[in-house]
Structures are given as structure tokens and as C-alpha cells.
Specification:
about 350 residues, alpha/beta, Aspartate Aminotransferase, domain 2, 2 domains, seven-stranded mixed β-sheet, binds pyridoxal-5'-phosphate
Length: about 350
């Protein structure tokens, strides 16, 4: 028996397999620090959990509209207007099973066989695999540490071809943490306009910014052209410690949103109804609570890493170096554990460190 050719192209999700391996090791009683999945190191706040329980008790357990309830799509549209200066009708929003699912839907909706997708590296590992699954060709554009791992216009120009259809932007970035400025986004938008390509803007780390002087700007908000060619993706997973709930969303031109809704309706139908009900509370109240409490914990860990880097306990002045080095000093991790009780570190894919 032969499997479909597309399966030969894709690799397994190393992030998920490492996470599973870490769990297996923990279950055996080993004390493990993993560097794999982007998993908040705290639980979903209780009042969110309570509203999910209420949704179940109220019988909100049936199919909903494939692209999400009108109520939730309205809430997302309000959020995008308030936080990002982006104006979409609820019908331009598709709620999917996490940001990952939204991204996969977009590639399926846009790519024909052989279409190329520009992916600046370092990148989140799923992008190329999703592109392959949709019949496309990932074209990796290597960025430089001296440019803060930000893709430069000349690097894009060197990579673009007749077949290029999409550029993927991820700001704030996983894994480097870099954030594009308005001027940098403007040059990417101008590049996309010049070559008439789509922009996928993955903004799932929008709220995980700790330092003064940095702000998240959505490339779609720059001008009308950028708005029309951008598909904006975000999720509740990271910001609200809701990775397991599987709620992400995308916003784009109406015609494309309709096509994506159609794809989703045949592949998964609606995202989990209970999680959708809960997310109607993802507005101001939730944001305020999280900013005061849980998100600070991310900040604490980030400051801690910065301190270690300043002390020269790792070799580079970039947190990303932690992913690249083959040996974070044992004392670094021991301190991470003893001083802030770190159980997991989310900056890098591909590592497990055992506290034996
Ligand atoms: C850059 C990036 N985009 C998207 C996702 C997917 O998030 P979700 O859990 O909502 O599918 C992740 C998760 O690790 C990510 O790091």
C-alpha cells in the first residue's frame, strides 16, 4: 500500500513529539524542563473555566455556524478594531481550531501546486509543513543576527520568483521574539504590493511584549492595499493560557473568508462550541485580569533569561541562542528551576533537559 505523495514531504511536529516525550519522562518520575511547545506555564484562569462549565450545563453543546457563532465573530471584530485599528465585518472573520488550523486553512485556500511561499527563518516549524501539505513550495529566507533576525527587503527580492504567492510574517516572532517596527512593516507591505503577493500575518504572540518602546503593529492596519492582501491570524491560546481549548481566528477579504469558511465547513465544521461560548468573555475584563497577573509571569521568566544572558552564562546576546546552543549550562537551568520554579521554557523547539 502506498500513502499519498504529500505525506512523504512532511516531517512530524518535533514540538509535539518532544512535548509528548517530556510528558512520558515526567510520568516516570523524572524532573524535566522542556524547550518545546509554546505552553504558558500557568493554568487557564478559573473564571474562564467556570464559564465553560456553565456552557455545558446550559446545553451549548451542539453544532454552531462553521466559521464560529455570530456573537464570537462580532467579539473578534470588536477586539481587532479596539486593539489593532483593523476594521472587519464579522463575516470577514473565521474562527478555527486554534491559530494552527487557521493557517492551514489559508494555505489550502490560496496555494496551487508549485506556488512558492516566502518564510523568513528562524521560523515556527509548522509553516513549511503546512505549505507542503497544501501543494506549495516553502522558500526559506535566512535572516541575520546582526539585523535582529528581521528579514530585509533585499533578502526578499533575492528570493521572490514568478511563482511566489505568499509571504509569511510572524511578529512578535517565535522563536526569536523580535518585533517589526512600523517602518519595517511598511517595507514588507511595499514588497508584497510590488510583487502582488498575499501576506499572512501570524500575530499569536501579540500580547507577549514586555519591554517599553516595543509595540505590536498589525501590517494590515498600515494602508488599504496592505489590508486587502493580508490575512491576519491570531489565537487565544498563548495570551489566555488556553492552548488546549483550540480557538484561533483569522480576518481577511470577504471573498477569501467565504472560501475558507467553505473549506472549514467540510473538514472540521465549527470549532468546539463550549470553547466558543467561553471566548465571548475574551474582552476587556479578561485582558485586564491577565495583564495584572498571569502575563507578568512570562515577563518574570523573560527578565530572568535576560539577566543570565547579561551575566554571560550563555554565549549570545539573543535569547534565540538558547535554541541554537547544544548545551545550556546546567547551573542556568538549575537556577531557572530553583529561583522561579520554571517547569518549562518556551523559547525554543527541540530540547528536553532533565533534572536528574
Ligand atoms: C508562531 C505560532 N503561530 C501559531 C501557533 C499556533 O497556535 P495555536 O495553539 O492557537 O494553534 C503557534 C503555537 O506554538 C506559534 O508558535
Amino acid at each position: 500500500m502506498q500513502f499519498a505523495k504529500r505525506t512523504a514531504l512532511i516531517k512530524d511536529s518535533s514540538t509535539l513529539s518532544i512535548t509528548a516525550k517530556a510528558k512520558e519522562m515526567r510520568d516516570k518520575g523524572l524532573d524535566v524542563v522542556t524547550f518545546a511547545g509554546g505552553e504558558p506555564d500557568f493554568n487557564t484562569p478559573d473564571y474562564i473555566n467556570e464559564s465553560a462549565i456553565a456552557a455545558i450545563r446550559d446545553g451549548f453543546t451542539k453544532y454552531t455556524a462553521a466559521a464560529g457563532t455570530p456573537e464570537l465573530r462580532r467579539a473578534v471584530a470588536d477586539k481587532l478594531a479596539r486593539d489593532n485599528g483593523l476594521h472587519y465585518k464579522p463575516s470577514q472573520i473565521v474562527v478555527g481550531n486554534g491559530g494552527k488550523h487557521c493557517l492551514a486553512n489559508i494555505f489550502l485556500a490560496l496555494l496551487n501546486d508549485g506556488d512558492e511561499v516566502l518564510i523568513p527563518a528562524p521560523y515556527w516549524l509548522s509553516y513549511p509543513q503546512m505549505v507542503y501539505l497544501a501543494g506549495g513550495e516553502p522558500v526559506i529566507v535566512y535572516t541575520k543576527a546582526e539585523n535582529g533576525f528581521k528579514v530585509q527587503p533585499e533578502e526578499l527580492e533575492a528570493a521572490v520568483t514568478e511563482k511566489t504567492k505568499i509571504i509569511v510574517l510572524n511578529s512578535p516572532s517565535n522563536p526569536t521574539g523580535m518585533i517589526y517596527t512600523r517602518a519595517e512593516l511598511e517595507s514588507v507591505a511595499a514588497f508584497a504590493k510590488k510583487h502582488n503577493i498575499y501576506i499572512i500575518s501570524d500575530e499569536v504572540y501579540e500580547k507577549l511584549i514586555y519591554d517599553e518602546g516595543f509595540a505590536h503593529i498589525s501590517i494590515a492596519s498600515l494602508n488599504e492595499d496592505a489590508y486587502n492582501r493580508t490575512i491576519m491570524v491570531n489565537a487565544l491560546s498563548k495570551t489566555y493560557a488556553m492552548t488546549g481549548w483550540r480557538i484561533g481566528y483569522l480576518a481577511c477579504a470577504q471573498e477569501l473568508a467565504d472560501v475558507i469558511t467553505n473549506i472549514q465547513s467540510h473538514m472540521t465544521s465549527n470549532p468546539n462550541s463550549i470553547a466558543q461560548k467561553v471566548n465571548k468573555r475574551g474582552g476587556k475584563e479578561m485582558r485586564e485580569i491577565l495583564f495584572k497577573s498571569e502575563l507578568n509571569k512570562f515577563g518574570t521568566f523573560k527578565d530572568f533569561l535576560a539577566e543570565l544572558l547579561a551575566e554571560g552564562e550563555v554565549d549570545s546576546n539573543e535569547v534565540y541562542a538558547l535554541a541554537e546552543e547544544q548545551g545550556i549550562p546546567r547551573r542556568t537551568l538549575e537556577r531557572a528551576k530553583s529561583e522561579i520554579g520554571a517547569r518549562s521554557v518556551q523559547r525554543a523547539d527541540g530540547w528536553i533537559w532533565t533534572m536528574d
